[in-house]
Design goal:
It contains no helices and 5 strands. The radius of gyration is 15 Å and the shape is extended. By secondary structure, it is mainly β. The model has no long low-confidence stretch (mean pLDDT 82).
Amino acid sequence: MTAGLHLISRLRDDSVLMYEYRGQKTGKKGRPKKYAGRVDVKNLDTDYFCLDMVTKDIQIYSAVVYSKEG
């Protein structure tokens, strides 16, 4: 049974978040591209983030991004 809740957590200030690559496959040999670039938290790309909730005080955006380890 699922509660319909999602985890929101705090990451380190120096953590690296990457956008998921959504482009066409090139058809070339080798591993396909997995990431489309770094997430700039002060300038979100609206192609990846969607607006979930708006109140008079806050706006909540969500997206699926990858966290780079190490």
